[in-house]
Amino acid sequence: MTNIFSKYTLGNLTLSNRIVMAPLTRGRANNAEHIVTPLISEYYKQRATAGLIISEGSQISPMAVGYQNTPGIYSKQQTEAWKQITKAVHDEGGKIFIQLWHVGRVSHPDFLDGKLPLAPSAIKFDYNARTPSGPKPAPTPHQMTVEEIKEVVGEFKIAAKNAMEAGFDGVEIHASNGYLLHQFIAPCSNVRTDDYGESYENRCRILFEVIDEMKKVMPENKIGIRLNPSYHNDHGMFLTEDTIPTFDFLIDKLNNYNLAYLHLSEPGRRAKESSFAETQIAKRYRKIYKGTLMINRGFTYESGTKIIKEGNADLVSFGVPYIANPDLVRRFENGFPLAEADTSTYYSIGAKGFTDYPDFKA
Ligand SMILES: Cc1cc2nc3c(=O)[nH]c(=O)nc-3n(C[C@H](O)[C@H](O)[C@H](O)COP(=O)(O)O)c2cc1C
Fold it and tell me: Is 127 known to be catalytic?
């Protein structure tokens, strides 16, 4: 019988189980080139027993950055550096996708050589960017011209090409958590009146353009997408009566592609306070989406096992549990207790709270 430890066929890959390491920004690429390092390689290698690892969000261009010490995948040097990580994970028998990220307005000129962050519309929102010199309010962003939109679409394509060259098994498009692609999808951050605004079709247009461009440089069945139809959180995003119908349209349209997977999240505490939140995301979109469904947020061994058994998801991703439990799969298999992650080292520099969490010793 299928359970969370059963193998899973993802395109032309065989995952050794259905436990996925969710993307986790850890801020250890503390160098001027934004390249990944041997320490980061060690971190992913330690976690390679996951059926699939999705890397931390990785910027597709210098304008895509919103946090300190996050790695990029736009330059030759960055692409070369990622090779040590894909090799380390593959040598351990694991699989790894890279998450492609453009933060859009969730940034600050301090990260962008003094330029204003890019966004679908010039809407000011309440957010403090974590700049190197402390928290600073995000400014009103620059409304992208159509030309700038096309440029960003092209940057996703180049990043996808680089990811293939670096040896990744696939890529995940980050279209969630209030970042650029999500900003286009949501009417609270997109009030454009051109081809990229107003209707569902127009607000989702950039995402389909990104997929169509990426398909030119990599197989469609290696492209995953992260969406969150119940995201209601910081980054100035809130749910409206339009949110779920928009995602119903978008996710149904994804059926026209043969993608690796759709990665969704169940709502968090704050979303549940909104009357517009869908509280059963996997259940709803299992009926609409015909491909592989990966579900996230708040899962435990028990609830992950349950949702797979019920057939409402194919894969379950774990975020925080992977920070302090590199051997999460083995702990689940043996009923070993889970270690607690130290939140103070989530985004700090160095090995502490990063690679120094040991495997469980019985
Ligand atoms: C330290 C930290 C960094 C994160 N970085 C990312 C990221 O880079 N990209 C992303 O899509 N989600 C990111 N997330 C969200 C996680 O992928 C996941 O959705 C969240 O932790 C909830 O899942 P969980 O309950 O299993 O932890 C991050 C979460 C944490 C705690």
Answer: no
